[in-house]
Amino acid sequence: MKTNRLIIIRHGESEFNLKNLFCGWHDAPLTQKGVHNACSITAAALIKARLEIDKVYCSALYRARHTAEMVLCEMKCANVPVVVDWRLCERHYGNLTGFNKREMADRYGEQLVQTWRRGYHAVPPAITVDNPYYYEICNNLIFSEVPAGKFPLSESMAMCVERIKPALEEIKQDVLKGTRVLICTHGTVVRALVNQLEGLSEAEVEKINIVNSVPIVYEFNMQTGERIGSMTYLGDPEYIRKKTAQVASLGERSSEKS
Ligand SMILES: O=C(OP(=O)(O)O)[C@H](O)COP(=O)(O)O
Asked: Most buried of 90, 114, 223, 248 (most Cβ within 10 A)?
């Protein structure tokens, strides 16, 4: 049986991940640790598993592009083509963008904030002009490919699934031709991809939390196009368990950070 693999990663730790802030379409950079982990966790795991890459599909946001670049350099294949696709950008977090998750839970209640974070159809309040990131997001040229009328003011998981569907179909065609693809994207988009690839129910996908930097591997039968098995993380199970719990939680207030 001829098989091929698809590798998916959530970018390394961003400045907003570190500060526990909703990020979405704000173009936050990686922290030093995020840059370091692209080499010491992502590339190291791929090199150890002898997984080579022929092509990268990447979100247009800087934290994902920087991660992809670091991984390719560390794997000594910086010439690999990188296709930048706005459809792989994080879900737009609306007016939550830039706010601390724990502080939002204090203001609106844990249940509502967790519903905004993980509810399949929950759309956070639309971003307004008084949001500190409104103009930065609207004027960011990385979104120039977004078709007229499709620029969101906020997105649910369900809306995110709809926009990644055609991109995933294109990527799958490449994988079934034998191209060894890496997708470099974001927490919600990885969840949307897992949802589509595994045909999960809405309730199942609401429970998934994705760790930064650790590669996820899917295998496909190239003749039938069928997926073999479910997602496999390439990394230390104890590290993944601890980090998954952190991603799922509402984290700390800004004032609790050193
Ligand atoms: O921008 C985000 O995701 P990213 O760090 O994967 O780009 C979100 O703020 C992640 O937050 P969540 O885990 O509460 O959905």
From this structure: 90
